[in-house]
Amino acid sequence: MNVQGLASLYALLSGMLTLLIAMGNVQGDMIDTSGLKAWETCAMCHGVDGVSHMDRFPKLAGQPLAYLTKQLRDFKLERRLNDNGTMTAMAGSKMMKTLQQAAKYYSRLPPPPAFKRSPSAIDRNAQILFENGDPRRNLPACRSCHGTAAQFPRLKAQHEAYLAKQLLDFRGNARRNDPGGVMRKIAKILSPKEIVDLAMYLAAQPRQKEVR
Q: Is 70 exceeded by the pLDDT of residue 99?
C-alpha cells in the first residue's frame, strides 16, 4: 500500500478512534494493533507523516527523540495524565522498546508546516515573550529551551489549540510532568490572554529541520 493509501486508512481509523474516545475512556486493548509497526498505532491519531489534522493531537514530526521518549515513558508510568487517560492506556499497552521505536520514527520526519496567518493578527508581545521573556516578572525567553535543548519540545508550527491547552494545563496543575515544575511556574505567571497570544504566534512560525 502506498503512502496515500496508508494516509486514507489511518484517517478512517482515526475517525473511529475519536468516536470511541468521545464515548468514554479508551483502554489499551480496545483496538487490535497486533502486527502493526511501532509507529503505526500512533499514526491513527498523529498521522503517518506526524502532522495530525485534528488539533487535539499534537504534531510529532521532527520533535526531539529525547523529548518524545520522555513523554511516552511518562504516559506509560502515569506521570502525565492530562489527556483523560487516552495516552496512558495506549502507552501502557506497549513495551518501552516499542515506544522508543515509535519516538525514533517520528523524530526523523521533516518538521510540519506553519499555520498560515496574517502578520497583522500576530501579537507583538507574544513574539517578545518568546524571544526575550520578561525579566521584570522573572519570565525566561521561551526560545532559551524550546529550540535548543533535546529534552524540550519544539513549539513552532504546532497546533495553536494544543499549545494553549498545554499551557493552561500547566497553569492549573493538570499537567505535572515538567522537570522541576518549571513550566507550571512559568504558566502561572502568564495571563490567559498571553497564553492564547503565544499559541497563535507559535503556530504561525516556521520550524527549521534540525541538523543531526
A: yes
Q: Which residues contact residue 212 at a Cβ distance below 8 angstroms, ignoring those fewer than 6 apart?
A: none
Give the residue ranges of DSSP H helices in the chain: 3-23, 38-46, 65-76, 86-92, 96-107, 124-132, 160-171, 182-189, 192-203
* C-alpha grid cell, residue 88: 496512558
- Phi, psi at 139, each rounded to 5°: -100, 115
Q: What's the N-to-C CA distance of the chain in angstroms?
A: 30
pTM of this structure? 0.83
Q: Do 133 and 48 form a contact (C-beta atoms < 8 A)? A: no
Predicted confidence (pLDDT) per residue in 137-179, tens digit: 999 999 999 987 889 999 999 999 999 999 999 999 999 999 9
- Say whether pLDDT at 30 is over 70: no
Q: Which domains does the chain have, with CATH numbers?
A: 3-107 (1.10.760.10), 119-203 (1.10.760.10)
Contact 199, 155 (CB under 8 A): no
